[in-house]
Amino acid sequence: MRKAVLSVLVSAVVLSSGFAQNVNISGKVSNASGAAISGAVVRIFNTPLACTSKTDGTYLLFGSTGIAGSGATVSRMNSIMYRNGSFVFNVSSPVQASANLYDLAGRMVAKIFNGRLIQGSTRVPFSFNRPGRTMLVLRAKIGDASVISIVNPAAGADFAINQQSKANGTLAKTAALDWLQASKAGYASYMQTIDAYSGVINITLAALAGAPNFGPNTKIFDPTMSMATIQSTMDALHNSTGEFSTQRTAYLFKPGNYSLNIRVRYYIQAYGMGMSPEDVQVTGTVEATEDGTVSFWRGVEGFSVTPTGGQAVWAVSQADPFRRMHVKGALLICNSGASGGFISDSKIDGAITTDCAQQFYIRNSVVNGAPTSGIWNFMFQGCDNPPAENWPSGGINVVAKTPLVREKPYLVFDNTLGLYSVFVPALRTDCQGTTWYNATPAGELMPIDQFYIALAGTDNATTINAALAQGKNLILTPGIYVLSTPILVQRPGTVVLG
Fold first, then answer.
1. Listed residue (50, 41, 48) closest to 17, CA to CA
2. 251 pairs with which residues across the strands?
3. pTM of the complete model
4. Which tens digit of pLDDT belongs to each residue from 457-468?
């Protein structure tokens, strides 16, 4: 069997969708001793329904979710049928479509179709052959919208396909909307599947115990540690890695002030774990300066750096994200050869300079000047104070705003509570500038216990998929994962973070 090798550096996936559902759930949130817990947030995955429990721990979720699909798209899909061992898709005009089957726990059962439907009927042979002929969920993406249907056993050898709807005062459980969740800082979040969206569900939250295990390849630093010790640890790792080595390392810096030279070489990432880059202040360097035009596979995010000599150096080529950074000085993006890179959600106080970098994409950042020579192509999109465009005679391109974007989720550490969490930035439209400078980041803070933390050499596709099927989000810690089967991310709203 062919095996896939997953080398984790940076990834983030956020899946979303909306559905028509009615909800009426009440209950009480308490601890293991039965004492009421106030302020716990109770919600149903992937819906706008959420409330905060009262002082006596009681909560009430009531309302309905959004409606899936637009009228224009739904009208083009006249019908989906299953007859005589085949799905039959009938559309009024040609359209790109895909359709997959899921069980009621949200696990994919089979891929039915992925391609372009022609006008009229398209027959796709498919045999169920499922013991007990259980109910399934058919999720079809027609154009830009989704259609959700319940597939029920029917007379003879057929199945009936019914659009999702309310029946007998309750709701059919679907692959997209079947988890109730309660969470509060300091407590392990509560998650369970629900078969019908009505009734009373009481919740017991347990106290959160211990720090998460991010594995041996993650180094966690805090400002109370010896700066010399931190520097020595990083220098040793920097000197031991190289292109195509098997080393994978992440540095996590808790909020505070540091005097360090943070150099990132092959397969090294450095993260400041504050809500804002201003929460982690570094005096010295946060830089990449070596390996010239093959300076791949490294990254930094979440720091405010006051560079020694007034200039930071980020001389990189590809696969080198520079996110949520505040450079309190100038930024040099070439040093004896560099190919180019990506900067987002950052503020550069001084000029961006280069004499050899080939191309860069700089998005939703605050900039102050830009190189005018020695470049092939520089794209500034959604930036405050961008340079003047001089394309096609020069290499500067400017797009005023970013029409639709969500920044990558990131780890956060609360020094007061001693808790880790993951912040998922809000979706932004027609935006310019950063998410954090002169602003409070908008989004959702998710407790770390809502994540399955995978360890290379210990976890595989089986253990990871089992956690995802239970409603967990996923953090892949640094390392090389050998997978004999795919990782299946099927619940809308799932966050996958490397």
1. 48
2. 219, 270
3. 0.75
4. 999 998 998 888
